[in-house]
Design goal:
- This protein has 2 domains: 1-325, ANL, N-terminal domain (Rossmann fold), CATH 3.40.50; 330-432, ANL, C-terminal domain (GMP Synthetase, Chain A, domain 3), CATH 3.30.300.30.
- It starts with a helix and ends in a 5-residue tail after the last strand.
- The strands form 5 sheets. Strands 4-3-5-6-7-8-9-14-13 form a 9-stranded mixed beta sheet. Strands 10-11-12-15 form a 4-stranded antiparallel beta sheet, with no helix packed on it.
- It is of the alpha/beta class.
- The protein has helices spanning 5-8, 12-33, 35-43, 65-70, 104-120, 139-151, 163-172, 182-195, 216-226, 339-347, 384-402; strands at residues 84-89, 99-103, 128-131, 154-156, 177-180, 206-210, 229-236, 241-247, 254-256, 261-266, 280-286, 297-303, 305-306, 318-319, 324-325, 330-332, 335-337, 352-363, 366-375, 407-411, 426-428.
- The longest helix is centred in the first third of the chain and has 22 residues, at 12-33.
- Helix content is 31%, strand content 25%.
- The chain binds 5'-O-[hydroxy(phenylacetyl)phosphoryl]adenosine.
């Protein structure tokens, strides 16, 4: 099923026209309503009338998270506060949080975006959907909540926190759809296991997972353990929250809601566009937002776009998996390391649970990387030789993928801390030294 065939399946030429006219309107709007952008454009000698079609987007200034911090809290708002009906903020671990304001019209766009996300995963009005993203300043909870209501399905605002209760709700309320982070989906399967509840006995059919990167192996794991189909949903608070891009039944890249959010892939160093299909930093312009529209927001997410037609019939471009962030990339002994590389090695080996932790440290002048991973109970052993052999096997595989040696620490099942939200997979102790 497709939520909005008119918009999701329009010809690429038609969509380009729509994007061009929306971009013209947007630039005129921010020029007159956001001093931040007017100043930037004036410094570049750029007038709204210089933007004629979507290809002119490359002339526009960038926006960074730092800009949002510098103008904290409301400096990026284009609409007066009396027209803002909701605020969210990202959980900044360093410095000030970034604040996002929505007008009524922005919330309507967001609801539509989420309705597309859920419909593409096979959800419909008769579904009962549990939203297990955090409710509050985080965009996941309320974002999904109002999207589910908008499409007419039944929403259960479970939020995070009490996982056993969540499992009981899944069972007792006949919940058919789940919206949570991928790591929490896995955790719920463990809780079910402990409670002696067989996921196959539940009504669950699909899950909309996002908020953090996950790999194809993790998808397989979640689908098998929870007996459902798992679909990716990508988004970030600065742009809208969840609902920027979403997977369809093909589960092969996430369709970008391009009529509202325009994606570019740029080289993070030169900020020039990469050839179509190549990997680089995702940069997004909000084409229709009125509360806090952003021009060319640098997401720092490293990924690529797939322009090939999709058998599902949607024509909006597909976002490939997020390979990492240009700012969470670790440089260990001069080598770039993405945590997702370690994850793919671990998930490829049946001996391990998909729970791991990277600990980066500096001993003397040498960087060190320790990978802690949980051994599945059926492979756990008191035999030293068995454990040593398993350690060596993982260590060798990591070396071949990462090109650096990692110390491997095997830990018991369930010993790595679980979170209801995004899991913390990296501890970089060098930052403190
Ligand atoms: O995580 C919004 C969201 C909520 C998306 C629920 C999907 C589902 P932020 O907290 O601002 O917003 O974090 C945004 O998380 O730039 C990516 O690095 C990462 N991220 C989000 N979704 C995905 C995904 C929400 N599906 C940041 N795959 C983004 C990989 C993701 N990374």
């Amino acid at each position: 099923m497709i939520w909005n065939e008119n918009k999701e399946c329009m010809s690429r030429d038609e969509r380009r026209e729509l994007q061009s006219s929306r971009l013209r309107k947007l630039v005129d709007y921010v020029y007159h309503n956001t001093p931040f952008y007017r100043n930037k454009m004036q410094a570049m000698n750029l007038l709204p009338s210089d933007i004629k079609d979507i290809d002119d987007i490359v002339k526009l200034p960038f926006t960074t998270k730092q800009d949002l911090r510098d103008t904290y809290p409301y400096g990026m708002f284009a609409a007066p506060i009396r027209d803002i009906v909701r605020l969210h903020a990202s959980t900044g671990t360093t410095g000030k949080p970034t604040v996002v304001g929505y007008t009524r019209q922005d919330l309507a766009v967001w609801q539509e975006a989420i309705a597309r996300v859920i419909t593409a995963a096979g959800g419909a009005r008769q579904d009962i959907i549990s939203v297990g993203y955090g409710y509050g300043l985080f965009t996941g909870g309320l974002g999904f909540h109002y999207g589910v209501e908008h499409m007419g399905a039944t929403v259960i605002p479970t939020s995070t926190g009490n996982s056993e209760k969540h499992v009981r709700l899944l069972r007792d309320f006949g919940i058919t759809g789940l919206a949570v982070t991928p790591s929490y989906a896995l955790y719920l399967s463990e809780v079910m296991d402990k409670m002696g509840i067989d996921p196959a006995s539940l009504q669950l059919r699909f899950a909309n997972l996002g908020g953090e990167p996950w790999s194809p192996q993790m998808r397989k794991d979640i689908e098998q353990k929870l007996h459902l189909k798992a679909y990716n949903c990508y988004g970030l608070s600065e742009i809208v929250g969840p609902g920027v891009a979403y997977e369809c039944e093909e589960q092969n890249g996430s369709h970008f809601n391009e009529d509202h959010f325009y994606p570019e892939i740029l080289c993070p160093d030169t900020l020039q566009p990469v050839p179509a299909g190549d990997t680089g930093e995702l940069v997004i312009t909000t084409l229709t937002k009125t509360g806090m529209p952003l021009l060319r927001y640098r997401t720092k997410d490293i990924t690529s776009l797939d322009y090939a037609p999709c058998p599902c019939g949607r024509t909006n471009v597909r976002l490939n998996a997020i390979l990492g962030r240009s700012d969470d990339m670790l440089i260990i002994r001069g080598i770039n390391v993405y945590p997702s590389q370690v994850e793919s090695v671990i998930l490829d080996m049946p001996e391990f649970e998909p729970h791991y932790l990277l600990i980066v440290d500096r001993v003397g002048i040498l960087d060190s990387l320790e990978v802690q991973v949980e051994v599945r109970s059926e492979y756990y052993s008191d035999e030293l030789s068995t454990i040593l052999a398993l350690k060596k096997k993982l260590s060798d595989r990591l070396k071949s993928v990462l090109s650096i040696k990692a110390a491997v620490k095997l830990v018991e099942p369930n010993s790595i801390e679980r979170t209801a939200g995004k899991s913390k997979r990296v501890i970089d102790k060098r930052e403190l030294k």
